[in-house]
Amino acid sequence: MGRLATLLSTLAHKLALDAYTVALLGMVVLASFLPASGQVAVALGDVTTVAIGLLFFLHGAKLSREAIVAGLMHWRLHLLVLASTFVMFPLMGLAMKPLALGLLTPDLYLGILFLCVLPSTVQSSIAFTAMARGNVAAAVCSASASNFLGIFLTPMLVGALIVSDGGAAGGGSGWSQVLSIVEQLLLPFLAGQLLRPWIGAFIDRHKPVLRYVDQGSILLVVYTAFSESVTEGLWQHVSGWTLFALIGVSCLMLAIALGLATWTSRRAGFSKEDEITIVFCGSKKSLATGVPMAKVLFAPSALGMIILPVMLFHQIQLMVCAVLAQKWARRAE
């Protein structure tokens, strides 16, 4: 374990990974060598369900209605971001099927399809937009709307694209999937929104601390998901070459998304500030929303393969967008 810790530390230093990314990698390594099984796995599954509910409750409590109202008037920008997130990405995922199936396993391709139907990130989209001197109010509105609509649109797109393509859904199909999403994700989210007038000030004051609750919930889901997949033979089906190919496919998808978002925003006549918002909000996919949703929507044995593309794309988008944000921040007024 000492050598493993040293290896992770060296990898983080060379790739400039943050502590949270290292923790995600650590959960994958831990599940690979010490997967949860038996009664421990059952107990962790119950704890994970509660943690996911708490995660979406906090998402609802943190969502500022004032910020949304301030950005709602920019409807053309929001429509473009939503079209990029829920139309362009799914179409790109379908178009890449021949390439992906030629390089990856069918299960990993389903993970790519799942990645394509996820909503945008919230925190990093807003942070990068602010760093690059973009339209922050519009970024708050677009990213928040994407996550809220994703609670409905992502399960619908999963049913249309993934289950019909041979993917195994864990929550059943049709209304049973919708009911699972409502019970585990939407109801806690709405409860947080309704209670915001009373707990919003507390949530805003303690955001740095509550961030660890968010991250801890995702780490727990990643560990339980990979534990189940490892016991089902995950690493017997994913070679080093397959991982390399998955990284390449993820980079290609991100490059296409960034290029199309930039080209479309310029053709539509948006300002530079709005272009920055469209690029950052329209090219990202949310790990924080994707991992809990995968837990609800897919069979436990398939989770590892499903969330592996999401985890890799998440890190790649952060590194690339950090470079873009710094570049735009240096531009002249």
UniProtKB/TrEMBL annotation:
Entry keywords, A to Z: Membrane, Transmembrane, Transmembrane helix
Entry's transmembrane regions: 12-34, 40-58, 79-96, 108-129, 136-163, 241-263, 302-325
Pfam families: SBF_like (PF13593)
Protein name, entry field: Bile acid:sodium symporter family protein
Organism the protein comes from: Massilia haematophila
Cross-referenced InterPro entries: Na+/solute_symporter_sf, Put_Na-Bile_cotransptr
Source taxon at top rank: Bacteria
Stored Gene3D superfamilies: 1.20.1530.20
Tagged with keyword Cell wall biogenesis/degradation: no
